[in-house]
From TrEMBL:
<feature type="domain" description="Cupin type-1">
    <location>
        <begin position="109"/>
        <end position="169"/>
    </location>
</feature>
<dbReference type="InterPro" id="IPR011051">
    <property type="entry name" value="RmlC_Cupin_sf"/>
</dbReference>
<dbReference type="GO" id="GO:0030145">
    <property type="term" value="F:manganese ion binding"/>
</dbReference>
<dbReference type="InterPro" id="IPR019780">
    <property type="entry name" value="Germin_Mn-BS"/>
</dbReference>
<dbReference type="InterPro" id="IPR006045">
    <property type="entry name" value="Cupin_1"/>
</dbReference>
<feature type="binding site">
    <location>
        <position position="163"/>
    </location>
    <ligand>
        <name>Mn(2+)</name>
    </ligand>
</feature>
<feature type="binding site">
    <location>
        <position position="158"/>
    </location>
    <ligand>
        <name>oxalate</name>
    </ligand>
</feature>
<keyword id="KW-0479">Metal-binding</keyword>
<dbReference type="InterPro" id="IPR001929">
    <property type="entry name" value="Germin"/>
</dbReference>
<dbReference type="InterPro" id="IPR014710">
    <property type="entry name" value="RmlC-like_jellyroll"/>
</dbReference>
<comment type="similarity">
    <text>Belongs to the germin family.</text>
</comment>
<feature type="binding site">
    <location>
        <position position="153"/>
    </location>
    <ligand>
        <name>oxalate</name>
    </ligand>
</feature>
<keyword id="KW-0325">Glycoprotein</keyword>
<keyword id="KW-1015">Disulfide bond</keyword>
<keyword id="KW-0464">Manganese</keyword>
<keyword id="KW-0964">Secreted</keyword>
<feature type="binding site">
    <location>
        <position position="163"/>
    </location>
    <ligand>
        <name>oxalate</name>
    </ligand>
</feature>
Length: 225
């Protein structure tokens, strides 16, 4: 039989014991003493407790990072390179809204087929804030891609935005293909992976690339020329 009364316990025999689950906290002007159960008391300087309480929230705030395009502070901000006839708001200099016109929001030429006889058999026409100055601060742009048979767009990334690609017309392995890409930035930028890996300056050590791609060193040397 086992009986439990208060904090004392007995386990069917002469053996008995006492269990104390009471937590004790003593304070003075400079220290905080804590005692849990039958453990030895632990004393902490009060300054340590205060520092911990202040530093931890600051560490959480330091982890918050934001990165984004300039926010639109007005309906539109037509980009202009001449600061004498414009007002700087954010992003690029803004043309006086009274001087904005339809051509600031217009681009022509996407309907013209581009040359696809080059090495990668594709041509990309970007349409961002450099081509349509009215896109400044609007966080959107597009690209037009013409693909020839077996054409491709080399692997790449856009450091300032994400991309969605829509194929408008396709004739697999037979004729040209047209696609439009929508991007979530007025100037998404582009980084071609092959150029970064094999054409970097200074070059990446060939021993590293040989092991990474599991090819012979002479192949890496050829690609880095």
């Amino acid at each position: 039989m086992a009986g439990l009364v208060g904090h004392s316990f007995e386990m069917g025999g002469p053996s008995s014991g006492t269990f104390d689950d009471t937590n004790h906290i003593d304070r003075d002007d400079e220290h905080v003493t804590t005692e849990v159960g039958n453990d030895s008391p632990t004393t902490h300087p009060k300054s340590d407790t205060l520092i911990s309480g202040c530093v931890f929230p600051l560490m959480l705030q330091a982890c918050l990072v934001s990165a984004y395009n300039p926010s639109p502070l007005q309906d539109f901000c037509v980009a202009i390179d001449d600061p004498k006839s414009s007002v700087f708001v954010n992003g690029k200099f803004c043309k006086d809204p009274k001087l904005a016109n339809a051509t600031d929001f217009f681009f022509t030429g996407l309907q013209i087929p581009r040359n696809t006889s080059i090495l990668v058999r594709s041509t990309v026409i970007p349409v961002n804030v450099a081509q349509i100055v009215g896109l400044n601060t609007l966080r959107i742009s597009l690209a037009h891609i013409d693909y020839g048979p077996y054409g491709l767009n080399p692997p790449h990334t856009h450091p300032h935005g994400s991309e969605i690609l829509v194929v408008l017309e396709v004739q697999c392995q037979y004729g040209n293909t047209v696609a439009l890409a929508g991007l979530s930035s007025q100037n998404p930028g582009i980084i071609t992976i092959a150029n970064v890996v094999f054409r970097s300056n200074p070059p990446i050590n060939s021993d590293v690339l040989t092991k990474a791609f599991q090819v012979e060193k002479k192949m890496i040397d050829y690609l880095q020329k």
